[in-house]
């Protein structure tokens, strides 16, 4: 039996839960937009072509903010192609994903969808093939009330009121050689600084995200952040991070410890941003936007996008691209990644799981058919629902085990919140151990534990294995079940977590 003790103290908090960490991402890629969120003619589609079945799942998942329209796609995108009468919009070749883009869905459609979904828009601009002028024109189009060329164009295209988009990404993964318009850190840093400045001259209330590294394994990681922030520190608010994890060569232990890597990645970028702050004698702090993260079987999916046009057989509209099917293990890993983001919520202000529908996504759809939740839907949905109030700085002391990639790691991973208004504590607990259950003892300080309001677990169902997925006819085969082994005695909460499990415990508390 694995053992862990956790101490939770009402006074040991790390600030309010940044609700924007429950973000997602809609890219013009594969079937995320077309036949994902948007499918005119689908039985559940509304008058705008938005799939109501998907909207319901997005709302159940508790998504707060959605990044759009890419991703690699944005680095070759002309935003003007996606506005105005649909019949007049140009068809384009999207080089990033080798796809025929019809532009039937663009900014107005996305703004309408975001409104219905109740999510904030996070708009990315193209700093691959375009620059300062297109960026400031887009801000004027989206946010200026009227009486100017671009704002009146928006009004004549049917949106009298501005979209009032606050969050803007200055490009995407500009350090990556695969990116259209890839740049060096100096080239990108100067361009981002000037584009950001011009965008703010149109609307000073916007918040800007500079591109950090595409992943922490990039050869320029660290140096890139330092150089880019050296150019942009005064104009931007956030620096981005991207990370995708997968199980390789059957190394489940390392895969399950992916959040150790995420913790380290976040802490490294915080240190780099703070070093630039010190160097430049700045007073403001740059926070983090982890605007792409997830499990992605990139090695296995390699063949989804053959590298020659011949092998691809031409250009298609919304082809199936990286539609990963997630299993129990993946859901547990996603739970730990969410824990890492929440633990660092004093500096990670925004996070977007990539992506929302079909493309490495918690929600899958069939064209003309059903929409369903994948295994990774559940930890996200519950955490977004229950992580309220203040982030708790938990003191975790867990048995440890060895992994190939990360050395010794805690077998039990935890994060938690305390909401003074509702008088509730929420604990998000993970047993990374593949073989043994874990007994977790939580010592509660500064609060009197009352009733357990909710206790649920996601683990391997009876008779199945850790590779079980819930797809199509088997939707909801992997999900949450009641966690029964939870007791409260005095100031101690005791929880038994099954091997390989993600769990949530919600507890009523009163102040001492
Ligand atoms: O989310 C899929 C892709 O991954 C995005 O387009 C890109 O930014 C990243 O490399």
Question: How is the topology of this model organized?
Answer:
Blueprint: E1 2-9, E2 13-16, E3 23-25, H1 52-61, E4 65-68, E5 92-94, E6 99-101, H2 107-117, E7 120-125, H3 132-143, H4 149-156, E8 167-170, H5 185-202, E9 207-210, H6 223-232, E10 238-245, H7 252-256, H8 258-279, E11 287-295, H9 298-301, H10 309-312, H11 328-343, E12 348-353, E13 363-365, E14 371-373, H12 377-386, E15 390-392, E16 395-398, E17 400-403, E18 407-410, E19 412-419, E20 424-431, E21 438-445, E22 447-458, E23 481-482, E24 486-489, E25 492-497, E26 501-511
Parallel strand pairs: 1-21, 3-4, 3-12, 4-7, 7-8, 8-9, 9-10, 10-11, 11-12
Antiparallel strand pairs: 1-16, 2-15, 5-6, 13-14, 15-19, 17-18, 19-20, 20-26, 21-25, 22-23, 22-26, 24-25
The chain binds alpha-L-arabinofuranose (AHR).
Alpha-L-arabinofuranose binds next to loops.
Largest sheet: 8 strands, parallel, barrel
* Helix count from the secondary structure assignment: 12
Q: Order of strands across the widest beta sheet?
A: 3-4-7-8-9-10-11-12
- Shape from CA axes? globular
Tally of discrete structural domains:
2
- Low-confidence segments: none
Structural Rg: 23 Å
At the first level of CATH, the class of the largest domain is Alpha Beta
The hetero molecules present are:
alpha-L-arabinofuranose
Q: What is the helical fraction, as a range of percent?
A: 25-40%
* DSSP summary, beta strand count: 26
Strand content is 25-35%
Q: CATH topology of the largest domain, what is it called?
A: TIM Barrel
